[in-house]
Write a structure and sequence with these properties.
Strand content: 15-25%
Order of helices and strands: HHHEEHHHEEEHHEHEEHEEHHEEE
CATH architecture of the largest domain: 2-Layer Sandwich
Number of strands: 13
CATH class of the largest domain: Alpha Beta
Number of helices: 12
Strand order of the largest sheet: 2-1-5-4-3
Distance between the termini: 75 Å
Structural class: alpha+beta
CATH superfamily of the largest domain: Histidine kinase-like ATPase, C-terminal domain
Helix content: 40-55%
CATH topology of the largest domain: Heat Shock Protein 90
Largest sheet: 5 strands, antiparallel
Number of domains: 4
Bound molecules: adenosine-5'-diphosphate
Length: about 450
Amino acid sequence: MYNKIYRNMRFLCALVLSLSTLLFLVAVFTFFNSEIKSELPMFFALVIFTILMGIFIYIISSLIAARLALAIVKPITDFSSLSSNIPYEEIEPLIKQIQSQNKELGRQAEKAKAQKMQLQLITDNMNEGLIVIDKDANILSINSYAAKIFSLKEYEVKQKHYSVLTENSKFIDAVAKALKNNRTSLLIEISDADYRAFCSPVLKDGQLNGVVILLFDVTTILQSEKLRREFSANVSHELKTPLTSINGYAQLITNGIASPDDVPSFAAKIAKESNRLMLLIEDIIRLSKLDESDESNLKENFRIKETVCDVISSLSEKASMRNIKLECEGPDFFICANKSQITELFYNICDNAIKYNRDNGEVTFTLADAAVRISDTGIGIPPQYLSRIFERFFRVDKSHSKKVDGTGLGLSIAKHIARQNNVTISVESEPGKGTSFILTFKDVFRQNSGENLR
Ligand code: ADP
């Protein structure tokens, strides 16, 4: 449209300018007529003047035409920026309608953009992998979590066949089935983690339109299920051992096989085994309670020395029976934790330090720099077992440990409590010389100020 108007305008301008020039020239000629002599050079000068004039007229008329054409076309081509006064009455309703449609389109585009951003935010913050595949088996979209699972970047896999994600044949088959309109679910292992994948066909008007894949990390669930199964098997085994002894001695007495002289010693063995059974059951109950509930909401600020002294006084009798010295040294500090759990934690470690100590030995609590070191002068732990002593029912030397009362659960309970109270435990040991358990507290306060040190 602009070109058409421009061409017409240029023609008009050229016409007007040429006519005016012609009139001007005629006027000049008439005025100077008497002095003009018909000479050849004068004729050529006139011809050149006319050509130059023609070029000049062409340029000027082009410029004027361009300006005029632009002025006419601008309100139509750029109508979106026009406010109330539209110069052309005839097309005003049309322009107004287009303007309102434009506004509506703008609003809808904004809305769509906001919705897209919202969706992107949701999918990017999901703790599950989400992959959308089109009916041709190409990846339409993949959220960042899913890309991380497959150790790929989103842009590397978009619009590519879904098999670029993994070579796992179970996964490829499951998606292929979903692409044939069968809902599938499977467990897959990717980079040492376990995922449950749900592949669901997406239908539109009864026709398959693609597949949505959801991936859930079930590593911890599977691990805790495995631990629970192992724990149940261990519990049955551990309970069976003392029960078999109790049952054996009881039968010997009941059937009259045991001589009257043996009865007191058999009764004592029954008492000892049932005592062990009681301890085992108490520890098992304690552990399952710790497994089920988080008691961190019962945290309070208290002096660490107070709990250490409580533990020392409650174990002093047991220690004095083997002439073991219990001591506490170093500056006191405040911690924020569950007080009864921390007392239990110190108790379990100090109890072991007495149990696995030599007669006339020592157990020392050293308080320093937000940490408590509990050192003993006992039998020590061989280095190869240091990492295993916190396992449930683990005892370093079963035959030796048999002589010492214990369930193999004390340190598991201690580890659990430490985790719930922001405490880290490390162990140093030298067989034959002794063991040190170092507890480092994170929620520590300066005395009387309440200021957190960490
Ligand atoms: P237990 O009831 O057998 O003491 P624990 O879980 O408390 O069970 O400890 C696990 C094992 O770690 C113990 O059986 C023992 O072999 C070893 N152990 C723990 N503390 C000490 C220590 N202070 N000195 C030597 N060995 C220890």
